[in-house]
UniProtKB/TrEMBL annotation, chains A, B:
Protein name per its UniProtKB record: NUDIX hydrolase
Alphabetical keyword list: Hydrolase
Documented EC number(s): 3.6.-.-
Cited PROSITE patterns: NUDIX
PANTHER family per record: NUDIX HYDROLASE 23 (PTHR43222), NUDIX HYDROLASE 23, CHLOROPLASTIC (PTHR43222:SF2)
Molecular function via GO: hydrolase activity
Domain of life: Bacteria
InterPro entries: NUDIX_hydrolase-like_dom_sf, NUDIX_hydrolase_dom, Nudix_N
Lineage: Bacteria, Pseudomonadati, Pseudomonadota, Gammaproteobacteria, Oceanospirillales
SUPFAM superfamilies xrefs: Nudix
Top EC class of this enzyme: hydrolase
Residues covered by the Nudix hydrolase domain: 36-162
Keyword tRNA-binding: no
């Protein structure tokens, strides 16, 4: 940030009075420009014993596999953001369950929120590559491309999911609402 | 937003190519200025059968009672934000449990995240009014000033907590980690 978005004057980076950390300050109009973490919302879409992943068509991590997720927009809820991202990246409609992983990424000022979801069964085809995906497909646990996952948040979410499923044993058809929330902090790239 | 914070030129509000919603665009340097929801993080500090509330010394809702909470900062985790806000507003140190309420407020572009917490027992005095509070005190359920709570998110969080406690019966000493997550959407002021 170089200029005040309100009045156009140059800003300086300093600690405001009655504050304890530096902000971008405009001496011309007095605006303090706060900067805050952003939420990345998405889903873990499941269908029977398989999960839906998208191969990224865009940077960063182009060509690697991810869960459908992206920056939450103003005016929407976290669930609406997860539904929209899943529609955009995987052309898939989902029934959303509870929040499944909540991951703080303080080094990049992001909070990841992944909702567990079921692919809506009535649509055919149930999914396809959106403009930001090269390919979208279902993976059983044995098929997960662990070495080709795009982000550590995706790895963490899938590890929790298959551990929760193993805990269920062969019965394995837990209701979406009965999965626990897993939270964590990742401080590396 | 009137001016580009990168180059200082005037911005216009229009839908960028390959996008589906209007953003602030700079035709001079090409920057697209995205705006995203902010996280309000805080705690519900409990001590035996009482909860800690702060009476606000600042607008909005000056004079009304709230849970210690505020905008999450860059570089911190949601739990760290909850601890910091509780320290700033109530001069209290807490042991943080799980995420307890997650409330989407899409009309004001906020996501509320309240962690259940215990007041650390070893400090004396355990709490005091910080600069943004007029008064800080513990309330039993019967003492809660329901008509003088500052925000609907606070009301919702307290209603869930006392309902969960009633469900426990007289035993009433559930571990912090055993309380469920409650989520919701509030679309009004």
């Amino acid at each position: 940030m170089n200029f005040c978005s309100h009045c156009g004057a140059p800003v300086r980076f300093a600690i405001p009075m009655d504050d304890d950390r530096p902000r971008y300050l405009c001496d011309n109009c007095g605006t303090i420009h706060y900067q805050n973490p952003r939420i990345v919302a998405g889903s873990l879409p499941i269908m029977a014993d398989r999960v839906l992943l998208c191969r990224r068509a865009i940077t960063p991590r182009e060509g690697y596999w991810t869960l459908p997720a992206g920056f939450m927009e103003n005016g929407e809820t976290t669930r609406e953001a997860a539904i929209r991202e899943t529609r955009e990246e995987a052309c898939a409609e989902i029934e959303v369950g509870g929040l499944y992983t909540l991951v703080d990424l303080p080094h990049i000022n992001q909070v990841y929120m992944i909702y567990l979801a079921r692919l809506a069964p009535q649509r055919e085809p149930a999914f396809a590559a959106g403009p930001e995906s090269l390919e979208v497909r279902l993976f059983s646990e044995a098929e997960i491309p662990w070495a080709s996952l795009a982000f550590s948040t995706v790895t963490l979410t899938l590890e929790h999911f298959f551990a929760d499923r193993r805990h269920d044993g062969l019965a394995g058809d837990r209701a979406l609402a009965d999965y626990p929330l897993h939270d964590g902090v990742i401080r590396r790239w």
